[in-house]
Amino acid sequence: MPRVLVGKRSDIQEGGFTSVTVGGRQILVAKIQGSYFATDNICTHEGAELHQGELHNKELTCPWHGAIWDLTTGRLIWFREFLEPIQSYTVVIEDDTLFVEI
Questions:
Q1: Which end of the chain is more exposed for a tag (fewer CB within 10 A), N or C?
Q2: How many domains does the chain have?
């Protein structure tokens, strides 16, 4: 699987996240309870950029309509209707560098 460079581990603080664009795909990388998780950065409801939302523990709230996503799995926690999960990706750490497997 190809790896995409995200940046330095130290660039993402606990409870924080960043986004990167690779080949037209937007990916969000978050640090939650000392571990790193990566998902698509686009809400499957109407296409909001999730990095503009609010992260509380592992739950990210979409900035447009309030869908709540579990960033550790990409699954929907709450919304008024069914939404497809957001794609999740494997994060690889080498020294202080983060990569996402696409």
A1: N
A2: 1
Residue 57 predicted with pLDDT over 80: yes
Which pLDDT band, with edges at 50, 70 and 90, does 64 fall under?
A: very high
Residue 22 has pLDDT above 90, yes or no: no
Q: How far apart are alpha carbons 69 and 75 in whole angstroms?
A: 6
**Identity of the amino acid at 34:** G
CATH number for the domain that contains residue 26: 2.102.10.10
